[in-house]
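Handout, section B. The chain below has 86 residues.
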Amino acid sequence: MKLEAKELQAYWEKLGYQEPSVIQEKAYEPMKEGADVVGISPTGTGKTVAYTLPILAKTIVKGGLQTVIITPSQELAVQVASVVKE
């Protein structure tokens, strides 16, 4: 079972997002289509959500390991894990 766009949209709204940030808007479609994306954006603009949503849209629930996210520090890994788990 894949997460449906409506499930992700409902969760997006639950988190209180009104409009996607520039990085979120520009990264979503290319990543959803499988393109590699390099994005640079200031802290607090939603970069983690920008790459997490398209990944989750392609994830098969209980489908085993499907994604590996590599971060440069343990602190950032904890932050990213928190967003992904939500």
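Note. Helices lie at 5-14, 22-32, 47-58, 74-85. Compare this with the example in section A.
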